[in-house]
Amino acid sequence: MTATRSRRTDPLTLEVVELIGAVVARYHQEYEEAAARHRLTGAQARVLGLLSLDPLPMRQIAQRLKCEPSNITGIVDRLETRGLVERRPSPGDRRVKVAAPTEEGVRVARSLRDSLDFAREPLAGLSHEERLVFRDMLRRMTGTA
User: Domains (ranges, CATH) in the chain?
Assistant: First the structure.
């Protein structure tokens, strides 16, 4: 057995993997519950949250959420029907449409973010330095370091 393979199956690594899975499952559950309180699906909430940071073309939304552009079109259609998102010409290229949150969409996205306490509460118990180290480890794990 190689050293790399043994590190992937050692008890500590397996425990960390299980803990990451538990955190992800709890986060998704809380996210779905928060979305439902706003009469949104989890996918609609994720799109709205992303757009509240920056209006984007459909293709970029799909790339960031790692899904098909046709799925995003349907989600944006439903958010637009609810008055949470609108399509606008892109400032850089008027031939391209971007999806952007309305004022109500920004309010709902903020409310969703504010209601997600699961991750924030335990992180608040860590020092600033511990949060920086944790962030940097997550960036390394996700390849964004």
Answer: 3-142 (1.10.10.10)
